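Work package 3, deliverable 3.1, input record:
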Amino acid sequence: MSTSADLSPDITTVAVPTHWYNLAADLPEPIPPHLHPGTGEPVGPDDLAPLFPSGLIAQEVTTERYVEIPEPVREIYARWRPSPLIRLKAFEKAIGTTSRIYAKYEGVSPVGSHKTNSAVAQAYYNHLDGVTKLTTETGAGQWGSALAFAGAQFGIDVEVWQVRASYESKPYRGYLIRTYGGTIHSSPSTLTEAGRKILAETPDTTGSLGMAVSEAVEAAVVDPEARYALGSVLNHVVLHQTVIGQEAVEQLALVEDGGADAVFGCAGGGSNLAGLAFPFIREKIEGRSDPLIVAAEPTACPSITKGEYRYDHGDVAGLTPLLKMHTLGKDFVPDPIHAGGLRYHGMSPALSHTVELGYVQGTAIDQDTAFAAGVTFARSQGIVPAPESTHAIAAAMQWVAEADEPKVVVIGLSGHGQLDLPAYAEYLERQQ
Amino acid sequence: MSTSADLSPDITTVAVPTHWYNLAADLPEPIPPHLHPGTGEPVGPDDLAPLFPSGLIAQEVTTERYVEIPEPVREIYARWRPSPLIRLKAFEKAIGTTSRIYAKYEGVSPVGSHKTNSAVAQAYYNHLDGVTKLTTETGAGQWGSALAFAGAQFGIDVEVWQVRASYESKPYRGYLIRTYGGTIHSSPSTLTEAGRKILAETPDTTGSLGMAVSEAVEAAVVDPEARYALGSVLNHVVLHQTVIGQEAVEQLALVEDGGADAVFGCAGGGSNLAGLAFPFIREKIEGRSDPLIVAAEPTACPSITKGEYRYDHGDVAGLTPLLKMHTLGKDFVPDPIHAGGLRYHGMSPALSHTVELGYVQGTAIDQDTAFAAGVTFARSQGIVPAPESTHAIAAAMQWVAEADEPKVVVIGLSGHGQLDLPAYAEYLERQQ
């Protein structure tokens, strides 16, 4: 028995996007190109061919405003997309605000994070080029498990180097990678030259994404059958994530005539925040709304708020092209905070560029403030947010508390934290 | 950019049910009453009052066909309900069947299982009666975490006794309970007389749900502010779970004119299978369709396929009323299989009754067959099923493989297995 009235505060009635949105086409200045580390010249397709399939190389430099999502990718997206835009009534009540707060929730994907949006696309384009093996790095494991899932969809073997701090403290995402048929190593490992060199110099290192990138890139370069996949930072990754923001803009329009006053997302490599925010920047450029857009990063790894905007390598060994970005320096090793996905020394060049253009601002949140926000969120809404996402929640809480009138706020909830529960347990013990 | 065409194979367009469905009202014979262990007479409201609030006691014996879902409960349900009915195209392809297989997926709830459907209702009725503390038992931890979440919604403290085998091998659900503000103990514990007695006799026991029930019941009885909550077995729990089947019947009707040919669900205490199946039995009784309904249980704990149908206690210490059910005997301690939610010696009296009336049949699946099905499911669909749910998947796979024509099948996917990943890792290692 049911009535036709629908109580659901989850807004899912919009369709799965047919295209990815390329903000670069709408910006007054182009995103600075990636440079070849040897020549200092912009990298061309031939430079990238040992690492990436042709479809992704084309997307890295495309000037098209919309890029069509291939049907096989869209069909897999449709298993969980559109992801819900959830009105957080219980959370609003818990924090005592009259603002209307929405979460765009990517935890509904099979692996529980936004990473699947790019993983499926990357596996597809590699499959098109006949690639049978992909190597990658992962922090907390969201990206590695997403790529393992995507690889299983297209018959591609996936080999993952996971940052040691996360590999040791959070084994579940490694189990997940194996369940999908993938392989996982702790990084730095003895399997690559880059790893052996780092271990010789700093045997007790907790690892870093920059180190793990070096290992995965090297493993791809030495194997002609293999290619490399990056889970954030690059333009094509950001492009894939724009399904998030496109849906959110459409969903919000169904319930809020004025659009958003502010959009908050966590930023590690930047693809989550950029994927949510870029369609909102399109709204700004076209004059439909003018939200504040905030990238919430950890105080332990504050690339936007404390880093320099300059060309730097994406990895420790200096194997990647030079990227124009906010960076703490390729050798920066952040404390082993629980938000493993935010422990990256640099920031997406596309997102960095929008920061420089004034569309996005950064804010840094310390770990305990983030977890306190996560616990409040879990006890009210029920969803346990990923430690990364708690940074965005905390930043939004601070902003609505300081606002002088009720606001409409969208929080990017990049994933759930069910596989990060030891981090919550540790935080709660520290509070006793 | 999007078109109005919707690719999504998830069927979520039906509304959240307004009522729970009480199959008892439609059966030719009543469900045998629970008996007082002292007098052998049917238990009355006064007997149950130390354990349960008045609203739930009324539901335990109601003869109403539909029981209205209170608005506060329905509002919380609406955060994730209707749960999706997913056409499993990738899984169908992986197992090479032309049958059309659907999963009714309860893993979208905040804690990742169907248990929230009853937990929220039970917390609500206790809150109505002014109860401030609930005690309960849990196996793998789905029920304990669901009740901890529900308690947080209504300001009720939740104290959980978890079966030792699961407490030690799968700590994440314990962390989840703490994140929601609940308390958790390994069972048997030294906190109760029942626990101390069991530990004195069998200090190395892996625990059982029957033991944990004894501890939680005792803790509620000795504390006048506290009540007890049971996560399965009883009529009111089964009643709450009928939101699953009501939605599934409606959702399936949108895409399959003839309804289902078969419905598979895993059965431990029985509430998951009954919640899915009872609305399908209503369809049988009213002549709209005639699906085979299968309760998949583990060979390690085969209460329907190997147990006796008789009156037995729900717990080891004999504190609960006598229940007419399929039972392996209250002292039965199953092997510590990973499907902790299926390690219960008895079976819901309501479900047992429908087995006796011929509406439901049991089948037993061994653990490795279940995990093999789970891995095939994960690698194709992406969703990692709860170990409990893999029993239903395996049973459905066997049935469609033996069918002589394409069938329409509904599998009850009671939850996801993200917090049970060590079990998958162990299974995969055994296969190498």
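Chain A touches chain B through 63 residues (CB under 8 Å).
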